[in-house]
Design goal:
The longest helix has 19 residues, at about 355-375. The chain has helices at about 120-135, 155-165, 275-285, 300-305, 335-345, 355-375, 375-380, 380-395, 405-415, 445-455, 465-480, 505-515, 540-550; strands at about 20, 25-30, 135-140, 145-150, 165-170, 185-195, 215-220, 230, 235-240, 245, 255, 260-265, 290-295, 310-315, 320, 325-330, 330-335, 395-400, 425, 430, 440-445, 490-495, 520-525, 535, 560, 570-575, 600. With about 600 residues, the protein is an alpha/beta fold. The chain has two domains: about 80-460, LCP protein (Aminopeptidase, 3-Layer(aba) Sandwich), CATH 3.40.630; about 475-575, Alpha-Beta Plaits (2-Layer Sandwich), CATH 3.30.70.
C-alpha cells in the first residue's frame, strides 16, 4: 500500500503530497488536497525505571498480538515464509512485511489531525527549514549510509510503506533494550557487510561471501547530546571473538563458541554468527556497552548517494582502480551510485594502499554525505526527503528493539541534536601484526587504544563543545566541593556492577582497614552490569558523599544526588562499574586523546590523498 492509493493522489508522486506545517516546521502528508495540514503526532515518555537503560515509549506496544520472547521484547516472524538460513549464512533478516503489506510489530502512524491554513507557507519557510535541520538524523558508516527523516503524522499509508521496508534481526541477549535513555550516552554499531546482494554487485568478486563485518563504526553519542565520536574498527584487526548467543527463526537460542586470535570481520557471518556476536566483540575490545546495531550491504551507499543527489568528494590525484572500478581525475567531483560505491571500496588508490587508509577515505565520504543531507537543498525538498527515507529504510537491517519507523524516528529526533561540527571520526589505534612476515593484519595498540576507550567510557568529548557541556562539568565538579564527614560517620553499601571479580568485597575491606569507614557493607553483585561507577546519596548525606568520593577518587560525574533526605540509618549506594580497577585507584579518565591517534572532523572537507 502506498500514498497513491488514498485520497486524491492519482498519478501524483507520493513525495509531492508532503506539505510544510509553518507552526511546527515539519513536512507532513496531505492526502486530501482540499483540506488542511495534518497535525504533528506527539511523542511521550513513561517515567524512567531506576537503573534502567531506557524508558518504555508510548505506542511501542499498541498491538499486543505479536509473540514475545523471554525478555519481554517482540519476537520477529520468519521473513517471507522462508525457513532458517544456511549454517554459514548471516542469519536471515526477520520482521519483513507480509504479502498484504502489514508487519507484525507497531501499529499505525497518525495520532491525530488538525487543520492549518496553507497561505502562510512561503512566508515562514526559511524559519521552518532551520527547524527542520534539527529534526533530521544522518547516520553513515563506510559502505553504508543511513538517514532517517522524523515523520510527523505521516499517514497510515506512508507509515506502513516505510515500516515495510525495514529488515530486523532479534539479537537475543544483546541489544534487547528500549530505544534510548535520555539520561545516558547511546552507542550504536554501524556494520557494513561485504555480502554481494543487490543488482550488479555480484561482479565485484567474492560472489559467495556470507557477509562479514567489513566496515564497522561504533557511534557514541554523549549523554548531553552535544557531541559524538565515530570510532572505526579495522576489519583486519586480530582479536578474540567471545562466545555469543544468537536467536534462531523459531525463537530458540543457539550458543556459538568463541574463537581466539582471528580477524574482527569474522565476528559476523562465519560459523552462523549474527550482529549480536559483533556487538559482543566490540564490547570485549572497548569496554563500551553496545545498545543497538544498524547493518547494510553494498546497495546502501549506491541508493543513498543517488537519493541525495550525489556526494561531493575531492581527489588530490587522479585515480584509476581496476579492482574497485573507480576512474576519476584529480579535483572535486559529485559522485553517486556505482562511482560512490567504488570510491568507498577502493583500497589501492590512496596512502599506503592499506585498509587503514581506506577507512580514512570512507570517513571523508561519510562526512561529506552528512553535510549534503543536512543542507538546505535537501531539507527543504519534500521529494528528496521522501526518496531518502525510502532508500534508508530499504537499506537498513536493525535489531528488533528499534525495528519500526516510529522507534527509529524517536531515536532520530534524539540523536539529531548533535551538531556536525562536534562529531569526530577516529580509528582504533593498531600496530602491524608482529607474528606476520608479510603484513596483512594488525593488532590492538593497547597503550594508545585504552586511553581513547576510557575517554568514550567516561563520555569525554574528542572535540571542544559548546558552553553547556562545560557548565554541566562545572556543576558536577561543584558536587565535590564543601565540607566532608569524618570517615567513621560515612555509611555506604557497596555493589559490584563491573568486570573485576570480588571488587565489592575488596573495596569494603580497603575502606574499613585503610580508611576507617567501618560502616561499609558488601552487597555483592549489582542488579545489572554498568559501565561507570556511581555513588547515590541523599541531600543530607552530601558531606558523607564528598568524603567517600575523595577517598575513592570519584569524578563529579559519578555523584548522583537524590531528591529526598535519607531517614534513620539509611546508607549511600556505591556501585562499582567497568571503569573500576582496584580500591585506591582513582576513577578519572584521560582528558585528551593520545598523540598520533587519527582524527577527522565531520564538518570539514578534506581531499583523499
Amino acid at each position: 500500500m502506498d500514498a497513491q492509493s488514498r485520497g486524491r493522489a492519482d498519478e501524483i508522486d507520493p513525495a509531492d503530497q508532503w506539505v510544510l506545517n509553518p507552526q511546527t516546521g515539519d513536512y507532513e502528508l496531505r492526502l486530501n488536497h482540499s483540506g488542511g495540514d495534518s497535525a504533528s503526532s506527539s511523542r511521550t515518555s513513561a517515567p524512567r525505571v531506576p537503573n534502567s537503560r531506557g524508558p518504555v515509549r508510548d505506542g511501542d506496544s499498541e498491538h499486543g498480538d505479536a509473540p514475545r520472547d523471554g525478555r519481554g521484547g517482540r519476537r520477529a516472524a520468519a521473513r517471507d515464509g522462508h525457513g532458517p538460513a544456511a549454517r554459514h549464512e548471516v542469519p536471515g533478516q526477520r520482521g519483513r512485511r507480509s504479502a498484504n503489506g502489514r508487519r507484525g510489530q507497531d501499529g499505525s502512524g497518525s495520532d491525530g489531525s488538525g487543520t492549518e491554513p496553507a497561505g502562510r507557507r512561503s512566508r515562514k519557510a526559511p524559519k521552518a527549514a532551520k527547524s527542520r535541520r534539527k529534526k533530521v538524523l544522518l547516520w553513515t558508516g563506510g559502505t553504508m549510509a543511513f538517514v532517517l527523516v522524523g515523520l510527523s503524522a505521516a499517514g497510515y499509508a506512508l507509515y506502513q510503506h516505510f515500516n515495510g521496508n525495514l529488515d530486523t534481526v532479534d539479537v537475543g541477549g544483546s541489544g534487547n533494550k528500549n530505544v534510548f535513555d535520555t539520561d545516558a550516552p547511546v552507542n550504536i554499531l554501524i556494520i557494513g557487510t561485504d555480502k554481494r546482494t543487490g543488482k550488479g554487485n555480484e561482479g565485484y568478486g567474492d560472489k559467495g561471501s556470507v557477509g562479514h563485518a567489513d566496515t564497522n563504526i561504533l557511534f557514541h553519542v554523549s549523554e548531553d547530546r552535544t557531541n559524538a565520536t565515530a570510532l572505526s574498527i579495522p576489519r583486519d584487526m586480530i582479536t578474540d571473538i567471545p562466545e555469543c548467543t544468537t536467536r534462531q527463526p523459531d525463537g530458540s537460542e543457539k550458543t556459538i563458541p568463541g574463537t581466539p586470535n582471528i580477524r574482527f570481520n569474522a565476528s559476523l557471518g562465519q560459523d552462523g554468527r549474527d550482529p549480536s556476536c559483533t556487538m559482543d566483540t566490540v564490547k570485549e575490545i572497548t569496554g563500551l556497552e553496545v545498545d543497538h546495531f544498524m547493518m547494510v550491504d553494498f546497495n546502501a551507499v549506491k541508493e543513498l548517494s543517488t537519493a541525495v543527489g550525489g556526494v561531493e568528494v575531492c581527489l588530490a590525484k587522479p585515480v584509476k582502480d581496476e579492482k574497485s572500478h573507480l576512474d576519476l581525475p584529480a579535483g572535486e567531483h559529485r559522485i553517486q551510485g556505482e562511482d560512490a560505491l567504488a570510491f568507498v571500496r577502493t583500497r589501492h588508490s590512496f596512502g599506503n594502499e592499506s585498509d587503514l587508509d581506506r577507512i580514512k577515505v570512507q570517513q571523508q565520504f561519510i562526512a561529506s554525505m552528512m553535510r549534503q543531507m543536512q543542507s538546505d537543498d535537501t531539507l527543504t525538498s519534500p521529494t528528496k526527503l521522501y526518496k531518502l527515507a525510502d532508500a534508508a529504510t530499504n537499506a537498513l537491517t536493525v535489531d528488533s528493539a528499534i525495528g519500526s519507523v516510529k522507534k527509529l524516528a524517536s531515536l532520530a529526533q534524539e540523536l539529531g541534536k548533535v551538531n556536525t561540527k562536534n562529531i569526530t571520526f577516529t580509528t582504533v589505534p593498531v600496530l602491524d601484526n608482529p607474528a606476520e612476515k608479510v603484513k596483512a593484519t594488525v593488532v590492538l595498540n593497547e597503550a594508545k587504544a585504552e586511553p581513547l576507550f576510557a575517554m568514550m567510557r567516561n563520555d569525554t568529548s574528542l572535540t571542544e563543545v559548546k558552553s553547556q557541556k562545560k557548565a554541566a562539568k562545572s556543576k558536577q565538579d561543584a558536587l565535590l566541593k564543601g565540607p566532608k564527614a569524618a570517615a567513621g560517620d560515612v555509611r555506604v553499601d557497596v555493589y559490584n556492577g563491573g568486570k573485576v571479580a570480588g571488587a565489592a568485597q575488596t573495596t569494603v575491606a580497603w575502606l574499613q582497614n585503610e580508611k576507617g569507614v567501618l560502616k561499609s557493607s558488601n552487597k555483592a553483585n549489582a542488579p545489572a552490569k554498568t559501565a561507570k561507577t556511581t555513588l547515590e546519596y541523599a541531600p543530607n548525606q552530601a558531606d558523607q558523599a564528598r568524603a567517600l568520593a575523595a577517598m575513592m577518587g570519584l569524578p563529579g560525574s559519578a555523584m548522583k544526588q537524590g531528591a529526598e533526605d535519607a531517614e534513620g540509618l539509611q546508607a549511600m549506594v556505591l556501585t562499582l562499574g567497568d571503569d573500576f580497577e582496584s580500591a585506591g585507584t582513582p576513577i578519572v579518565g584521560p582528558a585528551k586523546v593520545p598523540a598520533d591517534v587519527q582524527q577527522a572532523n565531520a564538518d570539514k572537507a578534506e581531499c583523499a590523498k
